[in-house]
């Protein structure tokens, strides 16, 4: 389905045609279809059977992504007979805003090839800023930002933030760190090192360049919370030696460092405590619940609920998070701010919702599911928080930010994204 045909209504029943807003002297508005054209699309066009493998032959295979969307083109061509792809950079990049030099920011995004980072990068690029992405590609992937490679406003650097990095910049979004429990527990020592050394290095850079520094912290700093919902002044309930401690304590010490540099050295800091977020470009195999459930349902596999499914989470769509991050960065708020959606579900109910939405999208597209998927129960991971919901009063008062996307709308779009990936053979 062309993405321009997808109509999305926000929590108040208003159609969402753009994301972002003009606030704190920074206009972050972008038409939603411009963003969609970057993720709800094929990465390549397919050569016709018997076509010669000739990457220089641009003409007939030139993929044009113009259906009601920003006009840009890809020359990457898939040759089914040889099972090979000829990659080139885009022949024409998506149009970006032309900003006066005084308005154009030099922005560093660590972890910019990850799920959250790549959406932030899309937004900053479309808005006309100069963006440098640092990523070690442990969980991030070049393909999430490949559509910008070669653009004069864009730079992609393979670098691990545990090593120092020097660059002149105005703003640093420090997102680098694996965020999914199986990934961050895969090498716990490295996760702690990334949180501590990575944040130390980036704060050092911010101090030297006088750049404003925003860190992506997490709801995990509250641990398995005894206060519900969680406001920012709750100190948390974290097991310091448990399986999740590498991430939870890593982010807690990263916050401590951030406020240390703020108090001692006057570094201009912003701290976003991000609650469960989902959306296109989430690694389908990263083990988090939203990607697991959708991919399982699309493949006709049973949905795996851990524990008895009574634990709760509150799910926010990626565009709301990016709005919140940009808003926080450009505001004067130096205290930690929860960025999340208050719509709370038990994981058991959430499995039912995902199943229903996948079936709805399949019915709309005329797909015949291979079988009716069931919900099955597996062991609950250690220290899995029982409840989680953000208190977003501070974000509302200080940033005038509130999530706009309903969970249902976000899930529908994500199902379409994974369906496109499956059709393309990359899932
Ligand atoms: O997605 C996120 O944004 C968050 O993901 C994780 O936190 P967690 O809440 O444990 O996220 P999931 O792994 O998606 O799990 C959510 C719940 O679903 C359950 N789950 C997960 C996967 C699955 O297949 N089935 C299932 O029931 C988990 O046990 C947990 O109770 C990270 O630790 C956070 O830093 C991150 O912000």
UniProtKB/TrEMBL annotation:
Its cofactor is NAD(+). It is found in: Cytoplasm; Golgi apparatus, Golgi stack membrane. It catalyses: UDP-alpha-D-glucuronate + H(+) = UDP-alpha-D-xylose + CO2. Residues 108-414 form the NAD(P)-binding domain. Keywords: Cytoplasm, Decarboxylase, Golgi apparatus, Lyase, Membrane, NAD, Signal-anchor, Transmembrane, Transmembrane helix. GO terms for cellular component: Golgi cisterna membrane. Its EC number is 4.1.1.35. PANTHER family: UDP-GLUCURONIC ACID DECARBOXYLASE 1, UDP-GLUCURONIC ACID DECARBOXYLASE-RELATED. This is UDP-glucuronate decarboxylase. It comes from Gymnopus androsaceus JB14.
């Amino acid at each position: 389905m062309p993405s321009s045909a997808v109509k999305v209504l926000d929590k108040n029943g208003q159609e969402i045609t753009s994301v972002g807003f003009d606030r704190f002297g920074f206009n972050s508005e972008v038409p939603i279809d411009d963003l969609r054209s970057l993720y709800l699309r094929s990465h390549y066009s397919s050569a016709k059977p018997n076509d010669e493998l000739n990457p220089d032959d641009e003409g007939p295979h030139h993929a044009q992504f113009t259906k009601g969307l920003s006009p840009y083109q890809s020359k990457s061509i898939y040759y089914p007979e040889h099972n090979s792809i000829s990659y080139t950079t885009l022949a024409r990049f998506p149009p970006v805003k032309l900003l006066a030099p005084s308005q154009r920011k030099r922005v560093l995004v660590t972890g910019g090839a990850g799920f959250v980072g790549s959406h932030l990068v899309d937004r900053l690029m479309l808005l006309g800023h100069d963006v440098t992405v640092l990523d070690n590609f442990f969980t991030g992937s070049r393909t999430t930002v490949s559509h910008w490679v070669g653009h004069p406003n864009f730079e992609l650097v393979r670098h691990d933030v545990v090593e120092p990095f020097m660059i002149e910049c105005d703003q640093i979004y420090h997102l680098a760190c694996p965020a999914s429990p199986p990934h961050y527990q895969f090498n716990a020592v490295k996760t702690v090192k990334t949180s501590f050394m990575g944040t130390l290095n980036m704060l050092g850079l911010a101090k030297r360049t006088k750049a404003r520094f925003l860190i992506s912290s997490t709801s995990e700093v509250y641990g398995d919370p005894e206060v519900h919902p969680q406001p920012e002044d709750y100190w948390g309930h974290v097991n310091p030696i448990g399986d999740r401690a590498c991430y939870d304590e890593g982010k807690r010490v990263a916050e401590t460092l951030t406020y240390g540099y703020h108090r001692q050295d006057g570094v201009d800091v912003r701290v976003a405590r991000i609650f469960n977020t989902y959306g296109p470009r989430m690694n389908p195999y990263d083990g988090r619940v939203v990607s697991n459930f959708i991919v399982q349902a699309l493949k006709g596999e049973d949905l795996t609920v851990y524990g008895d499914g009574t634990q709760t989470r509150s799910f926010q769509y990626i565009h709301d998070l990016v709005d919140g991050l940009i808003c926080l960065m450009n505001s004067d708020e130096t205290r930690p701010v929860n960025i999340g959606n208050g719509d709370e579900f038990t994981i058991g109910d959430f499995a039912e919702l995902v199943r229903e939405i996948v079936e709805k999208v399949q019915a709309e597209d005329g797909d015949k599911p291979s079988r009716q998927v069931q919900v099955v129960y597996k062991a609950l991971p250690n220290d899995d928080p029982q409840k989680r919901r953000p208190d977003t009063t501070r974000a509302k008062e200080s940033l005038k930010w509130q999530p706009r996307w309903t969970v249902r709308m976000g899930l529908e779009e994500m199902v379409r994204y994974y369906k496109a990936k499956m059709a393309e053979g990359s899932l």
